[in-house]
Amino acid sequence: MKFLSKIPLFIFALFFVAPIFASAATTFEVSGWVPYWNGATSTADAIAHITELTEVDPFVYAVQNDGTIKDLGPMDQAPWSTLVATAQANHVRVIPTIMWSNPSAEESVLSTASSRRALEIAAANIAKQYDGVDIDFENKPADLRKYFSLFLQGLYERVGTKLVTCDIEARTPIGDMYPDGNIPAGTGDYANDYTQINKYCDRVHIMTYDQQTVDQALANQAASSSQLYAPVADPQWVSRVVQLTEQSISPKKISVGVPTYGYEYDVTAYSGNQYNYDIMWTFNPKYATQIEQQYNVQPTRNAADELELTYIPTTATTSMPVSSNINNALIAAAAASQYATQLNSHMDFRLLDWPDATSVADKAQLAKQLGVRGIAIFKIDGGEDPNMWSAIQGLASSATTGSLGGGGSISSSSLQRDLSIGMSGSDVAVLQKILNSDSSTQVAASGPGSKGNETTKFGAATKLAVEKFQSKYGIASASNPAYGFVGPATRAKLNAILATL
C-alpha cells in the first residue's frame, strides 16, 4: 500500500496490522458503477442490493474542458447522499468515478504542469471525502502516456491512505486483432502505461465489454461455421484480455468489467451465410423482452454465453420497431440468409445480443478462475436482468450447490448427451468432476466449480476447461467449431477417464 512509505519505520513496526491486509488479498470483490443519468433508479437499485456489493462507484463527477471537476449528482444531496450513508452503514466502500473523454482537453490539461497539478489536487480532495477515487479518463491520445502517468503519480501521493482506482481499456492480443499478420502502423501504442498503472493504482477495472469485432480471430472462427457473432463480451475474449493484462498488472488489483446491457444491430445477410453488422443502439434487457413479445420470437444462448434473437421489422425506423407480420416459424437470420443465397443478393434483419443473469454469474466464475480480485459491473441502474442479483448471491454463498461432495469417487453412469455452454444438469457436475481430476484441466482453483465444489451449470469456466481438455488430448483446437463443446469424441475420452475414477 502506498501510505507505508510515508510512515517512519519504527512506527510501522509498532502499528502494522497484518490481518487487515491478508483479508483484503483473499476477498473476492463485487463493485458496480451507479450512473448519474438515471440517478433515482440507479441509487435505489444499488441501495436495495447493497449487501451484495463490496464497493459502489457513483458515476457522477466529470472533468470539464478547463480541467475543473463538475459534480453531476450532486453527491451531498439525496438520493446520492442516501446511497453513501447506506453503503457506509453496511461497510461497503464508496469510490466515486471521475470521468473524462475529450481528447483535446485531456491533451491540453495533462500536458501542462500547472493544470495537471490542479487536477491532481481536486481529485485528491474528492478521494478524501470517501474511500478513494476512480479515474476513468478515456480516448486519451497515445502521446499523453508520460503525462497521464505523472498525473497518477501525483494523485497517488496526495490521497494518503485512500484508494486510487483506474479504469483501463481492454487490450486484445495483437495477433488476435490481426490474425492475417497485416498489422497497421501504431498498433499497440496506448496512452495508459500498464507498468505505471500497476505502480500507482490500488485497483484496476478492465473495461472488458464493447468487444464487437475487435477480436478478428474469434470473429473469423464464428464466420467459418456461419454463426452470427457480435458479442458484448465473449468469455474467450475476456480471458485473453485478462491474461495479457496480468503480464503487467498484479491480478490482486484487477477487477473484470462485466456489462449488463446489449446491442441491437442492423445486419445484412449476403450469399453464403456472410454478414455485415451495423450497430444501431445499446439497450437494457427489458427492451429485448418487448421485442420477444412483439415478434413472438424466443432468444437463444450463443457461443459467447449471451442471449440473442433475430427479427425482421415491418418498417425500418430510427425508433423502436413496430410489430411485424412475418411468419414467426422462420428465424429471421435463416430466412434472410436463405433469400440472399437463392437470389445471390442480400437482405437485412435485426440482431439483438445481450448478457443476462447467467452471463454475469459466469463472468464472476471466470474471474475467480483467472485469479483476479473481483468483478466491476457496468451498470447498476435497475435496467439489468433482475435475476442478476440472485445469481451473484448464489455464487458468493452457495459454493456447494449442485456439488458432488468433497473428493469422493463419482457414482454415475457415463456421460450420455452432448453438453455446451448454458446447459445444466447432474451430468454437468460429473463433467466438472472429471475435468477437476487433472490440475491441467480444472474448472476453477477455488469457489464454485472447483474440486469438491462442482456445480450443475455449464458456464464460461467449464467451457474453458473443456477447451484445455480437448487441446491436451488432441481432440479439437481453437480453429474447430467444436472447441469447448462436449460432442461424441470429447465425451468418449471423458467417459474413458470416468471409468478410472
Secondary-structure blueprint:
Blueprint: H1 9-15, H2 18-26, E1 29-35, H3 39-48, E2 55-63, E3 69-71, H4 80-89, E4 93-94, E5 97-100, H5 103-110, H6 113-129, E6 132-137, H7 145-158, E7 163-169, H8 174-177, H9 194-200, E8 203-207, H10 216-224, H11 235-245, E9 254-259, E10 262-270, E11 274-283, H12 285-295, E12 300-301, E13 307-311, H13 332-343, E14 346-354, H14 357-370, E15 374-378, H15 388-397, H16 426-436, H17 460-472, H18 488-498
Parallel strand pairs: 1-2, 1-15, 2-4, 2-5, 5-6, 6-7, 7-8, 8-9, 9-15
Antiparallel strand pairs: 2-3, 10-11, 10-14, 12-13, 13-14
Question: TL;DR?
Answer:
This protein is an alpha/beta fold and 501 residues long. 38% of the residues lie in helices and 18% in strands. The protein contains 18 helices and 15 strands.
General description of the model:
Helix content is 38%, strand content 18%. With 501 residues, it is an alpha/beta fold. It has 3 domains: 272 residues, Alpha-Beta Barrel (TIM Barrel), CATH 3.20.20; 90 residues, no CATH class; 98 residues, PGBD-like superfamily/PGBD (Muramoyl-pentapeptide Carboxypeptidase, domain 1, Orthogonal Bundle), CATH 1.10.101.10. The strands form 2 sheets. An 8-stranded parallel barrel has the order 1-2-5-6-7-8-9-15, surrounded by 4 helices. Strands 11-10-14-13-12 form a 5-stranded antiparallel β-sheet. Helix 14 packs parallel to helix 15.
